[in-house]
Amino acid sequence: MKRHIVAGLLKLCAAFSAAALSAAPAAAQPKTQLLVYTAIETDAMKKMYKTAFEKSNPNIDIRWVRDSTGVITAKLLSEKANPQADVVLGVAASSMALLAQEGMLLPYEPKGFKDLNPMFSDQRRPPTWVGMDVWGAVICFNTVEAKKLGLPKPESWKDLVKPIYKGKITMPHPASSGTGYLDVTAWLQMWGEQQAWRYMDALHENIAQYVHSGSKPCKQAGSGEFPIGISFEFRAHQVLRSGAPIELIFPKEGLGWDIEASGIIKQSKNMEAAKKLVDWMSSKEANEISTNWWAIVAYPGLAKKMEGIPDNYESLLVKPNDFDWAAKNRDRILAEWSKRYNAKAEAK
Predict the structure, then answer these.
(1) I need a labelling partner for 294 at 20 to 30 A (CA). Which of 1, 6, 311, 324 fits?
(2) Where is the signal peptide (predicted)?
């Protein structure tokens, strides 16, 4: 009897051990490490998008490389022969168009793409990049400092060239910042090249510093370091909410704008996971997260009213806005801009 019991126990242990061994490889299977290059603002990047995506996709771990749009674009182009990233996310459409022209992005229509506003994505089908949200130019004006200095409130871009503003304005450097580049390309498209360069020559006389971030000019205005900062509405809204004494000015001539977009690097080594991320970024869930910061998102009907942002904000955006033109002419425009104005660039 004892022999039968012992034999049975041994068989049971053997079966249990075999089951445990067969299950072990699955349990120990490592997560897919997805390398994502991004220009998304840090306060949005990890807290919301990463957490929400990984909750829905527990077998994928996002590893971020974050910098400003110009730096990320240069990094991607330098790695063209040996791409490192799997996905580009939250980078300006003008840069995504350039990457597409270089043959670096995978044509891919994500799930749910048909629910998005087609105006805010690549017009090719399948698209090489898909829009997330729109960001547009704004002037941050410190009302307290302006009163001390006797500065009138500017209403337009052309007001900023008045001599009273000399040394009182900061602006993003267009080679480093997508916001700086959208300002320059909007002026060139609105007024034509000859008039736009004349305008930028005059504006340069009043610029104290070209900084390497689209956010920094508004932060500087908010702190009173400089009374006027050319920035973008996401950061302006955040600075205003923080209690800084600023007013947001949306110049009447029209606003330069760009689109934060996502796309897949054609040579990604983790293609299935990359597609899942771009699918998710095109979802209603991801767009609802974006409405915490952006007044215009790609999914229609979700945007919320934001403090300081006018109801007619979308109608103020410069149209048409040719991202392919901005991409094709990027090197030429930046070379000309740097030749004229780089002497006032912030030290890196």
Answers:
(1) 324
(2) 1-28
**Are residues 250 and 138 in contact, defined by beta-carbon separation less than 8 angstroms?**
yes
Give the SS3 label for residue 132.
Answer: strand
Q: How far apart are CA 19 and CA 169, in angstroms?
A: 69
E strand intervals along 16-175:
32-38, 60-66, 87-92, 130-142, 169-172
Cβ atoms of 236 and 191 within 8 Å: the answer is no
Q: Is residue 258 within 8 Å of 93, Cβ to Cβ? A: yes
Residue 145 CA to residue 189 CA, distance in Å, equals 33
- Per-residue pLDDT reduced to its tens digit, 284-326: 999 999 998 899 999 999 988 888 999 999 999 999 999 999 9
Q: Could you tell me the two tokens for 293?
A: 């910061």
Q: Give me the DSSP letters along 300-336.
A: TT-----TT--TTHHHHB-SS--HHHHHHTHHHHHHH
Residue 73 burial class via C-beta count within 10 angstroms: exposed 0-12, middle 13-18, buried 19 and up: buried
Crossing angle of the two packed helices 69-78 and 178-191, in degrees rounded to 10: 100
Residue 170: how many CB atoms within 10 A of its CB?
A: 26
CA nearest 216: which of 165, 164, 251, 176?
A: 176
pLDDT digits (tens, 9 = 90+) for 190-239: 999 999 999 999 999 999 999 999 999 999 999 999 999 999 998 999 99
The burial of 54, by beta-carbon neighbours within 10 Å (0-12 exposed, 13-18 middle, 19 or more buried), is given as middle
- Please give the structure tokens belonging to residue 99: 């990457």
b/e map 1-37, b = 16+ CB within 10 Å = eeeeeeeeeeeeeeeeeeeeeeeeeeeeeeebebbbb
Return the closest-CA partner of residue 309 out of 240, 257, 256. Answer: 240
CA distance 226 to 53: 39
- Record the pTM: 0.85
Distances (CA, A) of 268 to 34, 103, 120: 9, 13, 24
Q: Domains plus CATH for the chain? A: 32-134+257-308 (3.40.190.10), 136-256+326-344 (3.40.190.10)
